[in-house]
Write a structure and sequence with these properties.
Layout: H1 10-23, H2 30-42, H3 53-66, H4 70-81, H5 87-99, H6 106-118, H7 123-136
Helix pairs in contact: 1-2, 1-3, 1-4, 1-5, 1-6, 2-5, 3-4, 5-6, 5-7
């Protein structure tokens, strides 16, 4: 793990999940970055979060995703920092970011599957979370 973030908070872990989903298809879209910013600015789970950590957390995510075993290290970091009660929150935020541009790309779908597996999100709960994200991001 890069030593720029020796310890990360649960909020950092949630942000890292969102950044990783956005980066999973190797194309960080403006709509996804805007969604991340909106989530960080408005959700209670991010109350008091220092927005200056965004660049630092993002850098760690990008570094890890470029390493050979980086995905394992990434999920280890997430699981160490995130209390189990926030696992479904993390998955919901990941789904919202993936859906923000109106299209779910294959790499994003695969990464969401990895998140479900790594955080042991029950399939029925995952389906409900995914359905909610889809409903929130529908267009007319």
């Amino acid at each position: 793990m890069p030593d720029t973030l020796a310890t990360i908070t649960a909020q950092d872990a949630l942000l890292a999940i969102m950044v990783a989903v956005s980066a999973s298809d190797e194309n960080l879209r403006t709509s996804e970055l805007v969604a991340i910013q909106r989530i960080v600015n408005h959700l209670p789970v991010f109350a008091g979060y220092d927005p200056d950590r965004f660049a630092q957390v993002s850098g760690v995510v990008f570094d890890l995703l470029e390493e050979e075993d980086g995905l394992d290290a990434f999920f280890g970091l997430i699981q160490d920092a995130l209390p189990e009660k926030l696992f479904e929150t993390a998955y919901a935020l990941a789904c919202d970011v993936a859906a923000a541009d109106g299209t779910l790309y294959e790499q994003e779908l695969q990464f969401l599957q990895e998140i479900r597996d790594e955080l042991a999100i029950d399939r029925l709960h995952a389906a409900a979370i995914e359905r909610g994200a889809r409903a929130r991001h529908m267009t007319v």
